[in-house]
Amino acid sequence: MRWQSSQRRSFLFWVAIVFLGVMLWRLASGNKSATANRDEITYSQFLAKVEAGDVKRVTIYTSPNSYELIGEYVRPADRSFYLTIFKEAAPEVLRLLQQKEVPVTTKEVRTGDWVLILLNAAPLILLVGFCLFLMRRMQAGGTFGAFGKPAAVKTGIGYDLHRLESGRKLIVGGVELDFDKGPVGHSDGDVLAHALCDALLGAAGLGDIGTHFPDSDPKWKGANSLLFLEHAKKLLNEKKFAIEHVDAVVITEKPKLGPHFAKMREALGRALGVSPDKIHLKAKTNEGVDAIGHGEAIAAQVIATLSQR
Ligand code: MG
Question: Do residues 128 and 20 make contact, with C-beta atoms less than 8 angstroms apart?
């Protein structure tokens, strides 16, 4: 019988729940059995027991201000007791125990209480953390992602071109450049952002930029194209896609783009919620030929790589 991936996820989810429950139960039972046969007694009760010869042996845990005493009764042999005394009372207690020939073991507690608590709680913290991690992976649909099976990788391509006319703003990669021409377009005409948006949507199988932001909609007239990228990122998140890498070429005769790449990568990275390191930009001229070479148009090509969690 071949299990569907949803069945496998469900099965492992319940295995993790049962595992967590059993471990917590064992932990609780262990603590209970360790302390179930131990009585907390007062200082005067302790002195009386020692005087009566009812104490078999005592272990003293010393710390800077107080001592904890854990001891065993002569009868019943399976019960023990504990109490905490001030440091000042220790000489009298030791003298009495020596007088009654009760064996005493002294242990110094060198670490602070918080360290002891942390050490005691560490297995539980690790266990809970592991189970939460496992459950999160399974709920995210990446049951086996952490255990060897590679995440699904998708690639998308995007292309855009805009005519350039005098007296318009030139915005590329979310950065306004000082130039005497700018793109003709319904939005701000950012070719790099548009091609990138198409590459991302294409990789995720979500259509293209025209599907989501039709140029017939007056809402997008003059719009900042980084908003398109922010929206595309939300759509990717809904389908559990993560952006792994973006590689882009912007083709224009003028102006020089290289000096502005750092700002562009930062602006695009911010819009997409990824590190600029994941965005690689290149610039080309068209060697003076065709519309781009004549300075009449600007274009961009982008390839985006996504992984699906
Ligand atoms: Mg466009």
Answer: yes
